[in-house]
Structures are given as C-alpha cells and as structure tokens.
Amino acid sequence: MITRIARALPVRQGAAPMAGAAVAFILLCAATTATAGPVRAVVLDAGLALLAAVAALACVGAARSATGRARSGWTAQAVACVSWIAGMLLWRTPSAGPDAYVPSVADVGFVGFTLLTLVAFLWLAPPSAGRPASRLVDALIAGCGTGLVGWQLLQAAHVADRPVLTVVLTL
Predict the structure, then answer these.
(1) For the range 101-109, what are the long-range contacts, defined as Cβ-Cβ under 8 Å and sequence gap of 24 or more?
(2) 147 vs 26, 50, 77, CA distance in Å?
(3) For residue 92, with 0-12 CB atoms within 10 Å meaning exposed, 13-18 middle and 19 or more buried, which class applies?
(4) Which single residue of 38, 57, 76, 103 could bond 107 by disulfide (Cβ 3.0 to 4.6 Å)?
(5) In angstroms, what is the C-alpha Rg of the chain?
(6) How confident is the model over 74-103, as pLDDT tens digits?
(7) What is the pLDDT along the chain (171 residues), one digit of tens a residue?
C-alpha cells in the first residue's frame, strides 16, 4: 500500500520541508535534554506543536502542487496537523492540562489528528490500490499507528520527564 501511495504522490522539488522538520526535531531533542521538570514539559509541548506546524506547512505545499484526490489527501493531513496543534495548546490550559481528568478537551485535538490522518490516507491511496474494504483497513492501520506513535512520544516524555531523544531511542 505504501509504495502505491508513494507512486501516486507528486514529487516535490527541494528539501526545505524535510530540512525544517529535521532542524525542529534536533532543536526539540537538544532543548528537552538541556531542561528538566516543568520547564521541560513546556519546551516539549512547544516543540511538538512546532513539529506539527512544520508538517502542516509541508502538507499545504504538497496540496498546492497536487490535484484531485491527492490534493484532498494532503489538505486533510494539513488539517490533521492543525488539530494536533490545537490539542497541544489546549493541553497547556489549566482546565485541560496534564493534571486534568482524561478525556479532556485537549483529547479532541489528538483524536482529530488520528481521524483526519485516516481520511488523508484514504484519499492519498490511488483508486486502483485494491478493494475499498482493504483500503479502509490499510488507512485505519496507518492513521491509528501514526496517532499512537505521536501520543506515545508525548506521554512517555511527560510521564517519565525524559528528554525526547531518550524516548525516541527507546520506542
């Protein structure tokens, strides 16, 4: 499925989106290694929101250069990233923050990310990628997996108060 999707995607010239994501991730790793406690938690949230913003901008760029289903898919993924950012911003509010009951208002943003990623993967998969039920299951696995990895990164780093690099290396 992934190779079929990759063949259907427009080839983007330039490495700016990937370089931006790499720089943001390196800065996040360095900042969470250099800080501890409540400061690390705020830095982690800001860094994950920054990574989501870089991804949203890359998806908008891909959507602008795509047509048809691919444009819809990239647009849905950009909206998914914005949903993650909304969840991160709400996570920092006192009424829905890390000490609030679960589920909280912030979870709407995180669940929205997973659901919109599912929709994006459905649109990005070419129609010839197989039976509709098979495409739905593939998209569900990929969308939920992407959301769970992001959520695991967020939770593991917050709960254990560990730097992002340590969390990523132990995933």
Answers:
(1) 109/83, 109/84, 109/85
(2) 21, 16, 12
(3) middle
(4) 103
(5) 17
(6) 999 999 999 989 988 887 776 555 566 667
(7) 445 544 555 545 546 667 777 787 888 888 888 888 888 888 888 888 888 888 898 889 889 988 898 899 999 999 999 998 998 888 777 655 556 666 777 888 888 988 898 888 888 877 765 566 676 676 677 767 776 777 677 677 766 777 777 777 765
Q: Which residues contact 120 (CB under 8 A, 6 or more apart)?
A: 73, 74, 76, 77, 80, 143
Helix (H), strand (E), coil (C) string for 76-109: HHHHHHHHHHHHHHHHCCCCCCCCCCCCCCHHHH
Number of Cα atoms under 13 Å in the Cβ half of residue 84: 30
Which tokens go with 55? 């991804």
Q: Whole-angstrom Cα distance, residue 103 to residue 85?
A: 17
Look at residue 97 in the predicted model and tell me its pLDDT: 55
Residue 164, token pair as written in the block? 């992002």
Q: Residues with Cβ < 8 Å from 116, sequence gap 6 or more?
A: 76, 77, 79, 80, 83
